[in-house]
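Q: Can someone sanity-check these two? First one:
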Amino acid sequence: MSETLERGALAADPFVRLDATAQAELVRGREVNPVELVEAAIARIEAVNGPLNAVTHKLYDQARARAAQPAGDSAFAGVPFLIKDLLPVAGAPNTSSCRGLKDNIGQVDPPYVQAFYAAGLIPVGLTNTPEFGLIDATEPALYGATHNPWDLSRSPAGSSGGSGAAVAAGLTAMAHASDGGGSIRLPACNNGVFGVKPSRGRNRASGFPEMPYDLPNVAVDHVLTRSVRDSARMLTLTEDPETPLERLPFVERPLGRKLKIAFIRDGTNGLPPSAEVDAAVQATARLCESLGHVVEPAAWPFSGDAVMAAFLDEWTVLAAGAVAQTTAVTGCTASPENFEPWTLALAERGAALTPERLAQAVATLREATVALTRFFETYDAVLSPVLRHPPKKLGDHATDQPFQNLWDKAVDNVAYTPVFNASGMPAMSVPLGWTADGLPVGSHFATRLGGEALLFGLAYQLEAAQPWADKWPPHSAPMLAR
């Protein structure tokens, strides 16, 4: 497609600025049909994705077939959607960006994917992710790097970097993401979109195996969006009907009460954020105060170094399990031809951990969870940075560099989010800040287990006070249509 035709297709697109809720309302009102929405999304992907490399697999034929069926009246009936290539989808590639799985095809839709279809969503493609989602950048050897639409030389973060870049660039209004240590919140931060990590136990099963050795299950699934209401509605639609948590209603309006918010500026490693990140999050603290909330300086209620060390032990166990499962299923060897150096080194560490070391990690993470639970008896929420640094240059976290270099940089950058995976508590990144160079900086909020309604209510307040939906990056469908 020529540049002139691409721009013409983008300029004629009446749907790109609409969130998923608004698109579905058009379908239910019979003002448009799903075929129109799907064809517009396909045109955007074809015109915009090339330099981004956010979408790695196109599911156009399946999407067109699904769009041709009666739309129904589901909440997101007929809305185009993207799925991160860590989640199995029957009949679609399921590689986890691993060369050892490059020919793998999903066999069964897990209950979580079934909920997408029940909601009326139409997958049009799969998004890029680092190998097994194991690093805070999206530059897999199998597919190459995803570029940040705010600055193509920058990282969209990981592991849901493809989904974050896609939503920021307007390819679809909403995209699936998952989070085992920050992987929804980090791309939300770096791409200027909204991302909530739900509580452990909130959602239907997505096929991710239980953690061994009594380690806490850290990975959860949800979506990245441009609007709060899309995220809030989607979480009610994917909720496990047998969740042990209090059932979550659709949160559709701002909070009606004032909060007591703990403001933690330093990471769990004891280091302060970079100057621009610090300035952005301090501005968020002032915004919260202007909304009537009480914001108090606070500190982590546990030993940050001990908790991060325990979480990293769990992370290496995750890597060891991923490599072992892949070799068992495919028959491939655990070699550099099939796995990236970072993955192999993590897996080697995880496989070497002693039972005593793992028992200590379990105990440390449980103690931190108890401490946080007590902390939230005093505070309604905590505010912190999402990442210590603004979006980094592509290649800075490449997985083929010396292991200790990457380990140190990743641990340094991701100093705020993993403890909420270990504790199972919900958290979100809200796109409220910007660097002098125009790069997005998210603000991180977290609360007690099962407290997503509080986060959504606060997010609606912030969205109304400081709207972000009309901020589009230079490499996005609306900007390229000009």
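And here is the second, same format, sequence then tokens:
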Amino acid sequence: MMHSMEKNMVAMNKRRFAAGKNVLRLILVLLGPVAMVVPSRADDGVTNHMTAVLSQPLSLANAVDIALQHNGDILKGQHDLQAQYGVVVQTRAIAIPHLQSSGNYQYTTELETESIPNLPFTVPGTEPIHNSWTANIQLVQTIYQGGQVLSSLRSAKLIKSQAMLDYQTIVADSLLSVRVAYYDVLAAADQIVVNEASVALLTKQFEDQQRRFDAGTVPKFNVLQADVELANEKPKLIQARNAYRISKNNLVNVLGHHIPRDIWEDIPLQLTDKLDSDPYKIELPAALATALDKRSELASLRKQQDLRKEGITSATSNYKPTFQVFGGYGARSAQFISDDPAYTIHGASAGAQFTWNIFDGLATKGKTDQAKELFEASKVEVDNEARRIELEVRTDYSNFIEATETLESQKRVQEEAEESLRLAKARADAGTGTQLEVLSAQTSLTQARSTQVQALHDYDVTRARLERAIGVNIMQSAPPVVK
């Protein structure tokens, strides 16, 4: 008997070893083509794409498109979104049938046997059985679990919706950063033009006063005064150029790119759009109503409130019974008839099972109380977020009104400052004016130009922030209609 068992075990091990070799060959065949693929360097692809961005004119719409594909926060948000979809699958798993399998094999010499002496034959069940094994597969479906099954399906939908709303919030915040960064670059470039013009005019004024001093028509004081004004203006130009470099660095960063290492200071970005003052008409009541209806943050918290409510259902389900049905098929080795592992006993099984946790030491009560308090807290959180959004809209609306009024007040200032400078120069040339009047007029013109640029920048930025606060999609070509 032992010799027969050993032969069977050797044969079984040979079959398993051969099957393992075949599986290994199949894996190598499947993975072989993949293993032969050498991935290209990611840094090279990023550098090439960034070089293409720098070499082409960049509009605001292009910047938005690039950010949607490469911005780090948006890319992370996409992965977080996919991760939440995994939570959705886990949540609704309770409603889907579970297929379970089990099996084991055992060889032992520690067996209790009984023998009957003085018999000419062997009685079945008295021989020692050294080999035993079992294998089962079973399909289990939960029919009722105190309302938790339907609650899990509702929760899965809520989690999926909330994940999408959170992703929309990330996208909206990121694209607002792109718009603001783009406007910062435009404003910094215009400020350079303003300061360069001012330095050029003051340089010309200094050279003119120097020539007149050499001719003996003006005192040395005029030359020194012009030189001091020119020296005071040059740091403003230096600061404007530095702000321009920093603003371009920031724009490239929010677009989701690394700046090439061979570019030290001035990034060769070519922006095609300009600061504009296109009218944007909306009243505060309409802005507040739109924000409370469209802001994804508030909608996400409302989904969270619904999830907390489903949490109460899940907690109280432990008070109720659980009912499951199952069906399966199993096989095992004989326990008394034969020591041959190939001798099997097999068959199908089906049935139902019922469990009811009558008393669990108040654990369910504790979970229920916790779920109810979390639900109440979620309602407070929704109310707090609504008030925060209203405050944000009111603040951004007020800032936009300020920027609009400032821009309106600057429409004719630059023209008047240019005319004032022309008259001051004419008076000085005629001998009826002073150099101080010319320098004062020049300073006023520079201030008017700089204020105009800043007003345009503030108008565009506050408009973008107001649109974000309202919850308007920035890809829309027109503001919401107000009746």
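A (reply): Looked at the second one. Residues 185 and 246 are 9 Å apart (CA to CA). The first strand starts at residue 57 and ends at 58.
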